Amino acid sequence: MTDSLSIDVFNSGYKRVPGGPGWDDSTPATWPATTSTLISGERDAVLVDALLTTGEGQRLAAWVHRADKRLHAIFVTHGHADHFFGAGPVLDAFPDAQLIACNHQVADEARGQTSPPAMASWNSRFPDQLPQSPAVPSSTNSQQFDLEGRALLFHTIGGADGALASIVHVPDRGAICSGDIAYNNIHMWLWKSTPGSRQTWLASLDAIAALKPKTIVTGHKDPDAPDDEATRILDQSRHYIEDFDRTVAASSAAREVIDAMLAKYPTHGNRYTLFVAAVSQFPS
Predict the structure, then answer these.
(1) CA angle 58-30-185, nearest 5°?
(2) Please, which residues bridge with residue 30 across strands?
(3) Average confidence score pLDDT of the chain
(4) How much of the chain, in percent, has pLDDT values that exceed 70?
(5) For a tag on the chain, would you pick the N or C end, based on fewer CB atoms within 10 A?
(6) 50-91 pLDDT, tens per residue?
(7) Which residues 6+ apart lie within 8 Å of 13 measured at CB?
(8) CA-CA distance, 162 to 32, in Å (whole number)?
(9) What's the mean pLDDT in 143-159?
């Protein structure tokens, strides 16, 4: 048995996207910085999530290769394309690794991201940057992975930013890879959210808090975020959703929501996320 597992995080940084109607193009519109996490023993490793573009997948594969571990699996936390479309180059570099999810609904939602309409939408944002036949995770019957005698626990949690969310719990390190249930210093993806869906998201944060983690690696993390401290991240994510919910209820236009949230969260990354979330609450 290895003495302790190591956790290393790859951050994609921000990517330019078309801003669309209403966005002030004097400020670049971007996709939120996204993470992939390598959990390793002395010889073996598991990767959590695999980014979006082919270029990111290539950089990720090179990063994992430099770790000099045997990659056994890529675990996909939820079925959004920006967490698994980049898996192809990693699977090419590590052909014995499996692309897995711990819940059949996560696998089904991921498969839905590869439908022609969904691919057309993603390609409109990232032209010539995506695989045309992305690998899709298969559902595993096991809720636990033995990594050199240390357990990685897979939990299906519930709703978050529009997809069923699962996590990887690393009890050995008091750590959780939260996917998109929690965010770290980035505006949260509340596009087309409702009061009900926001309450569901808050319940998912409570479910993570009940596991009493010390560290949370979020699916979206500003590259300059100060740390991965669990209490700070959970409190920040919870307050952000509550503030957005109250602000939408008290506002009559998207601009009011944007201004109020920027006043509360002036240093958060990816303001474009806030823009699309606010606009979705006041459809014309």
Answers:
(1) 95
(2) 16
(3) 96
(4) 99
(5) C
(6) 999 999 999 999 999 999 999 999 999 999 999 999 999 999
(7) 33, 223
(8) 16
(9) 95
pTM score over 0.85: yes
- The domain in which residue 64 lies consists of 6-280
Q: Across-strand partners of 159?
A: 164
Tell me, what amino acid is at 44? D
Give the Cβ contact number of residue 269 at 10 Å.
23
| Residue pointed to by tokens 């996917």 | 179
Distance CA 271, CA 28 (A): 10
Q: Which of these, 62, 46, 64, 112, lies nearest to 85 by C-alpha position? A: 112
pLDDT tens profile 175-187: 999 999 999 999 9
In a domain, 241, yes or no: yes
Q: Which residues, other chains included, contact 210 with Cβ-Cβ below 8 Å and sequence gap of 6+? A: none
Question: Would 41 be classed as within a structural domain?
Answer: yes
Radius of gyration of the chain (CA): 18
Handedness of CA 86, 154, 170, 45 (dihedral sign): negative
- Whichever domain contains 50, its CATH number is 3.60.15.10
Whether residue 1 lies inside any domain: the answer is no
Q: What amino acid is encoded at 111 in this protein? A: R
Amino acid letter, 133: S
3-state helix, strand, coil in the chain (%, to 5): 35, 25, 35
**CB neighbours of 14 closer than 8 A, spacing ≥ 6?**
30, 31, 32, 33, 269, 270
- Give the whole-angstrom CA distance, residue 41 versus residue 1: 9
Residues with Cβ within 8 Å of residue 223, at least 6 apart in sequence = 11, 13, 33, 269
CA distances from 78 to 189, 220, 235, 280 (A): 14, 13, 22, 22
What total of structural domains would you count in the chain? 1
